[in-house]
Input
Amino acid sequence: MGQGTGAAMIGFLRLLVFWSAFAAIAYWSLLIYSRSVRREALEKQWDADPPEGATDAMRRAFIEEGMSAYEGSLRRKLLWGVVVLPFLAIGTLLYLVNYA
Amino acid sequence: MRYVKWAFWAMIFVIFGSFLHYTLPQHDVVRIVGTYQERQDLNDWTSMFWSQPDDQSGTLASRDVQFIQSVRPNGRPMVYRNEDTGWRWPPYFKFDTASLQTEADDLKSNAEVPKWAVITHYGWRNELISIFPNAVGIRPVEGPDVTIIPWFNIFFFVFLGLVALLLWRMWAQFRERAIDPVLTDAGEVWDSVDARADAARDRAKGVFGRINAWLATWRRKPRR
Output
């Protein structure tokens, strides 16, 4: 209705700011969770079948290696979906409600 | 105490349930009979049941709102408001109020030659405090007894369930990995501190014991 695009932009910016704050929290907590799950899996993998004469340092090295592999993995990158997907959802809703 | 707990959870359930019931989309099969526009005073508490389609509307005391009048298959009237939600809550991102009003005008019919339509809306109708559900979509249908599958709500509740499951898993993981080890450690540390404190107290009786005894004379005595 009688609103200029200027007012609409302010509303959009407000949404963007709120969403960014929320997405940052969601992203970081998911990242911490995901890392923790990965680390636990690596620990269990080592403990289930440790090689002959395994030391604590070897165990630590194995886990750190697994963690650095995880940091470059696709699963780790998919976490960005938490930030990206809502914008796709907003775009879809915007289309369905106003143009479909 | 048990009743307090029940009452607490019942209250949470009712508040959260009403919130979802107000916000999620619902579908009504109706016959559109008219549309109108009316000036609304929006400076009392019921303004929270109206949209703020643009930034100046937050400070306005009144503004024009469009309405869609309809009759349900059971013969009862239902009136919807037709307002932009814009970028604000609830997140329908509705900007096509004028187009929706035109579509509603196009579907007008009378009782003799009825044209039926499904109106998607959110919100509540309450005659006492004059609030209206907000129409967000309209489409013509064959007759009054069409089957409507609420796909969005199905998807929404599945998603909500998955998020709840994830939050619960995250909390369980956090507890297992971060809190429980600390508690175990704290338990062990506490025991060793306790043992060391016993030894230290015996040693320190001489110097600190005297200082403490002197300090204690300045402390307030417990009331009888």
In short: The mean pLDDT of chain B is 89.
